[in-house]
């Protein structure tokens, strides 16, 4: 029954970092939905501007590997760096920029009168990966370097091979999703009573698409889901109640094989509003749900 902005901790990874920033800075869920539908909201960049940051295909990358230093770190300590993180160092360095996303977060933060030193007052962790060491960084967590909220969110969304790594406090960072799609395991020692997880990259109930592109996407999604299940078990082992919501077959059909395609946004949104409400209706115990 608590407002989303008033919960003890919000952790955001990749696109989830944008949602985390918005909720913690006082943007209501209804406002977020209307913005995604294309409505103009005062002081916030229009959705059409945000679309300039991306598209269904990445810009032509630079003709050099993304992070030789990450590959060196992997060679020196292969047991410390997850395979997906190590692999991200091999992809060509992306050229895309997230200027409008950064402007959106700055505009959101400017409306938050309770913000302290450029960060939401209530505990908010934004997850990215150090592109030299492979270390996962939760900006906003005690002990993390103080950085602007917009820089943290852009870093968390900088997909290797698609966008340029984001330089923050003298380090280069990339999308936190290369390490974990949710970083749920980070809250295992946070002493929380209850955790809600939105995991759009995983799925507890798959469909069986016929086209090769969707079949490949589902293969990758299964790997992500296995990682999520491990993290859920880890957090539940501490006594914390964990509720997980993932896309179901109808959502997956709406999303298609290319999650970066902005043309499917409205269909995905409207489908999820309906399927998620149905999945959440009437449950009370910790559970794993497919919308």
Number of domains: 2
Care to count the β-strands?
8
**Total DSSP helices:** 10
Distance between the termini: 21 Å
Give the biggest sheet.
5 strands, mixed
The computed structural class is: alpha/beta
Shape descriptor: globular
Strand content: 5-15%
- Low-pLDDT parts are none
Radius of gyration based on Cα positions: 18 Å
Query: Quick check: average pLDDT?
Result: 94
Task: Please trace the helix and strand order, writing H or E for each element.
Answer: EHHHHHHEEHEEEHEHHE
Helix content: 25-40%
What can you tell me about this protein's structure?
With 291 residues, this protein is of the alpha/beta class. The protein folds into two domains: 37-178, no CATH class; 184-290, no CATH class. Helices cover 36% and strands 13% of the residues. It has helices at 15-24, 29-36, 47-50, 68-76, 83-88, 99-110, 149-157, 212-236, 249-255, 265-280; strands at 10-13, 124-130, 136-139, 166-168, 171-175, 194-198, 241-246, 288-290. Strands 1, 2, 3, 4 and 5 form a five-stranded mixed sheet that branches. The two termini are 21 Å apart.
């Amino acid at each position: 029954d608590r407002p989303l902005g008033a919960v003890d901790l919000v952790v955001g990874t990749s696109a989830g970092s944008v949602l985390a920033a918005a909720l913690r800075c006082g943007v209501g869920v209804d406002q977020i939905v209307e913005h995604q539908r294309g409505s103009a909201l005062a002081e916030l960049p229009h959705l059409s501007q945000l679309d300039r940051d991306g598209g269904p295909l990445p810009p032509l990358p630079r003709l050099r590997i993304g992070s030789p230093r990450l590959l060196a770190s992997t060679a020196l300590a292969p047991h410390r760096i997850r395979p997906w993180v190590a692999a991200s160092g091999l992809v060509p360095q992306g050229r895309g920029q997230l200027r409008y996303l950064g402007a959106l977060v700055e505009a959101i933060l400017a409306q938050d009168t309770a913000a302290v030193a450029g960060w939401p007052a209530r505990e908010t962790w934004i997850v990215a990966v150090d592109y030299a060491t492979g270390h996962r960084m939760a900006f906003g967590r005690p002990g993390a370097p103080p950085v602007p909220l917009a820089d943290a969110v852009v870093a968390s969304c900088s997909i290797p091979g698609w966008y340029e790594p984001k330089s923050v406090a003298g380090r280069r960072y990339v999308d936190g999703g290369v390490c974990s799609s949710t970083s749920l395991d980070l809250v295992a020692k946070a002493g929380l009573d209850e955790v809600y997880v939105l995991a759009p990259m995983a799925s507890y109930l798959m469909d069986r698409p016929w086209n090769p592109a969707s079949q490949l996407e589902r293969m990758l999604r299964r790997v992500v889901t296995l990682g999520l299940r491990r993290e859920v078990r880890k957090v539940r082992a501490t006594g914390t109640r964990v509720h997980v919501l993932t896309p179901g077959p109808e959502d997956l059909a709406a999303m298609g094989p290319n999650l970066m395609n902005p043309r499917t946004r409205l269909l995905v949104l409207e489908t999820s509003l309906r399927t998620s409400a149905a999945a959440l209706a009437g449950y009370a115990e910790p559970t794993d749900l497919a919308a």
